[in-house]
Amino acid sequence: MSKLTDNIDKARAASRERFETARDIASESTVVAREKMSESKARAAALLGDGREKAAESVAATREAAKKAAARSEETITNSPLTIVAAGAALGVLVGALLPKSKTEGKFVGGAGRKINETAKTAYQAAKDASRDQISEMGLSNDNLRNQFKDMFGKAIEAAKTAMAAAQDAVKEDNQGKK
Asked: Is the pLDDT of residue 53 over 80?
C-alpha cells in the first residue's frame, strides 16, 4: 500500500505544480490583455478627438465660405438690383411658360391670360432694358456678371465638398477606431 500512497502523493504534487503553472500563465495573460485593451482605448480616444477636430474645422470653413457667398450676393443685389429683378422676372416668365394650360383655365381666364402675358412681356422687356442701361452705366459686362456668379457658386460647391469630405473622414476614422 505504501507504493500506492507514494504514487498518489506524486500525482498530487504533479497536479499542484501544473495547477500553479497554469495559474501563473493565466495571470500573465490577463496582465497583457489589460495592457493591450488600455492601449486600444487610448488610440480610439485619440482618433475620435482628431475626427471631431477635423469636423469642427470643416464646419468652420463651410460657415466662412457661406458668409462670404452671402456677402457677395448682398453686394451684387445692392450694386445691381435691377439685374436681380430682371432675372426674377425672367424666371417667372419661364416658369409660367413651362406650366401646362388646362381647358378650364383657357375657358375662364383665356382673355385675361393673354393680357397678363402681354403685360409680363412688356414688364420683362422694360426690366431688361433698364438693367442693360444700369449695367452699361456701371461699366459691367455680361461676361463679368457671369464670372461673378460662377465664382460665387463654385466656392459654395467647394465648401460643400470640403464639408462632405471631412464628414466622411470622421466617420471612417470613427469606424476604424471601433475595429
From this structure: yes
Give the range of the structural domain holding residue 45, as residue numbers without chain letter.
Answer: 2-178
**Per residue in 71-87, is it b (16+ CB within 10 Å) or e — as a string?**
ebeeebeeebebbbebb
Higher pLDDT, 96 or 51: 51
- Confidence (pTM): 0.34
Does position 90 have pLDDT exceeding 80, yes or no?
no
Distance CA 122, CA 99 (A): 20
Cell of 82: 435691377
Class of residue 51 by CB neighbours under 10 A (exposed 0-12, middle 13-18, buried 19+): buried
- The closest of 130, 21, 139, 25 to 82, measured between CA atoms, is 130
Q: What is the pLDDT of residue 112?
A: 64
- Tally the domains of the chain: 1
